[in-house]
Write a structure and sequence with these properties.
Blueprint (H helix, E strand, L loop, with lengths): L2 H6 L15 E5 L15 H6 L1 H7 L3 E4 L3 E2 L11 E5 L6 H13 L3 E6 L9 H9 L11 E2 L22 E3 L5 E3 L14 H16 L4 E4 L36 H14 L5 E4 L6 H5 L9 E2 L2 H4 L5 H15 L7 E3 L8 H5 L2 H13 L3 E5 L68 H4 L6 H14 L10 E2 L6 E6 L2 E6 L5 E2 L5 E5 L8 E2 L3 E6 L1
Parallel strand pairs: 1-2, 1-13, 2-5, 5-9, 9-10, 10-11, 12-13
Antiparallel strand pairs: 3-4, 6-8, 7-8, 14-15, 15-16, 16-20, 17-19, 18-20
Helix pairs in contact: 6-7, 12-14
The protein binds beta-D-glucopyranose and magnesium ion (MG).
Magnesium ion binds next to loops.
């Protein structure tokens, strides 16, 4: 029923400058997307072979989590060589093929840049260790003598986000800073060589055709002068909003201004996307001033419950914060660091409703691989298969990030469900046969077809996509209703049906709409009206 009207809408708005202002960006987690060589680990050739799927899904761009040479102490967020591909994922030739073929399909590619820290196997760090205290390479990291008589205490009281002290002592007695795992030493961003190296890395990937960068821990690069003690006993959370001496320091903005100059040297609207966990949406907006980056993940939205009032607050707050800097608001529900939103919200109905709400909002949206299949978090992984470094540390960052990283099901009745011909690095649940791409394709009630329809309408409908505001309409408690031009979205966040006069003709509904005047429980409906 709902798709006929959508099909009658004009197709494609074309490619305009500022594509990122309304792009739907799909996050591929390379280890878990598609495995071409049967080693149980996803790879670049797997990604290349599945680009047509992403095209058909209807996204505009693909963000690839790291595929660089890495010992994989933090699933590739520990980079040993920023200009090389890890053999587990393929070769530079394969990366080039992914970018070229994506472009041929009119899909953009955003690569993940990890500038806060590298791997302890990075050449600079190895050299710094070899050469000892006081040598120049040590200055590119944060090496310090310890405290206490024999220097046996860490230089300050900071804790790693993965748990345990943020400092590790090396055999010659000095300590180095790592906000994450000990295998991830933090760079010293005051050092000109670090700054130069990253501008050069940006150019390397821009020359290869990358359309932008997702900037890992963008808020962490600059530390407060003197690395002052925190002075409180509190475990740090990457996903938290605390004000901290190593996050969201004003000095980071200088770095992004210099990167923007590099991005702007290249034709074709290349972008920078900040992963910045800051205390407020206004602080996040500072990364998006016109001479800095283009987008930032909206973690305030991701942290909002399935509750009309809270959602409306988060939506208004996000839009209000971005308006003064002229940046698009982004929306995100899931990624490789958080519990999948189907599980967070407690049901598939809510997950589907949340997706339609997100895709109706003005700006750009992020979709994490598998959410279009309605995948739940895998909560019962045996300890021996887990790889999240924080799992092995007490009290660290939730420690349970493996459950959202399980390889996605493509087809077939048995694991690995077309993910590859071998196994899969994390076991997939038996119920996932019914959630595979093949199982859902062509089933109008499936979540995959819901996403496909939503993305098709979003692309075609003049009122959807870019924008910086919504017009709220009166609605009963627990219901959100807003208008954008001749488009209306209603979301019932309660667990009972709610009566509301139909604001127009239904275009798409996350749950079967038996009566147009009765919004089903936990549902979102798109209306033409
Ligand atoms: C990434 C995580 C990673 C951390 C350290 C992030 O925020 O998304 O997956 O563990 O940075 O690089
Ligand atoms: Mg493989």
């Amino acid at each position: 029923m709902t798709q006929h009207l959508a099909d009658a809408l004009p197709t494609s708005t074309g490619t305009q400058p500022g594509w990122w202002r309304e792009a739907v960006i799909y996050q591929v987690y390379p280890r878990s997307f598609a495995d071409s060589n049967g080693d149980g680990m996803g790879d670049l050739e797997g990604i290349r072979s599945r680009l047509p799927y992403l095209k058909e899904l209807g996204v505009d761009a693909v963000w690839l989590s790291p595929f660089y040479a890495s010992p994989q102490a933090d699933a590739g967020y520990d980079v040993a060589d920023y200009r090389a591909i890890d053999p587990m994922f393929g070769t530079l030739h394969d990366a080039d093929a992914v970018i070229r073929e994506a472009h041929a399909l009119d899909l953009r590619i955003i690569v993940d840049l990890v500038p806060n820290h590298c791997s302890d196997q990075h050449e600079w760090f190895k050299q710094a260790l070899r050469e000892g205290p006081g040598t120049p390479l040590r200055e590119r990291f944060h090496f310090r003598p310890g405290r206490g008589a024999g220097g046996e205490e860490p230089p300050n009281d900071w804790e790693s986000i993965f748990g345990g002290p943020a400092w590790t002592r090396v055999p010659d007695g000095e300590w180095y800073l790592h906000l994450f795992a000990p295998e991830q030493p933090d760079f010293n961003w005051e050092h000109p060589a670090v700054q130069d190296e990253f501008r050069s890395i940006l150019r390397f990937w821009l020359d290869l055709g990358a359309d932008g960068f997702r900037i890992d821990v963008a808020h962490g690069l600059v530390k407060a002068p003197g690395l002052p003690d925190l002075g409180r006993d509190e475990q740090l959370k990457l996903l938290g909003n605390q004000v901290l001496p190593f996050f969201d320091q004003d000095g980071v903005h200088e770095i992004y201004r210099s990167w923007r100059l590099v991005l702007d040297e290249y034709a074709g609207d290349r972008i920078g996307v900040a992963e910045a966990w800051t205390p407020s949406a206004d602080r996040t907006a500072m990364y998006l001033r016109p001479d800095e980056l283009h987008q930032a993940f909206n973690f305030h939205y991701l942290n909002t419950d399935w509750d009309a009032e809270a959602l409306r607050g988060a939506i208004d707050d996000s839009l209000d914060s971005m308006r003064p800097v002229g940046a698009p608001t982004t929306w995100v529900l899931s990624n490789h660091d958080v519990v999948r939103h189907r599980t967070r919200f407690g049901s598939l109905e809510r997950a589907r409703a949340a997706a339609l709400l997100m895709l109706a909002l003005p700006g750009s949206a992020y979709v994490y691989q598998g959410e279009e299949l309605g995948l739940p978090e895998v909560t019962d992984l045996p300890d021996e298969v887990r790889q999240d470094p924080s799992f092995f540390k007490a009290n660290g960052q939730d420690g349970l990030r493996d459950g959202c990283r399980v390889p996605i099901p493509w087809s077939g009745e048995e694991a690995p469900y077309g993910f590859g011909t071998g196994g899969s690095w994390l076991p997939q649940p038996a119920e996932w046969a019914g959630l595979s791409v093949a199982a859902q394709t062509g089933d109008p009630a499936s979540t995959l077809e819901l996403y496909r329809a939503a993305l098709r309408i979003r692309r075609a409908h003049p009122a959807l996509g870019a924008g910086d505001g919504v017009e709220w309409l009166p609605a009963p408690e627990g219901v959100l209703a807003f208008r954008r031009g001749d488009f209306v979205c209603t979301a019932n966040t309660t667990d009972v049906p709610v009566r509301l006069p139909a604001p127009g003709t239904a275009l798409l509904s996350s749950t079967d709409l038996a009566e147009p005047d009765l919004l089903p429980a936990d549902s979102t409906v798109w209306w033409q009206g």
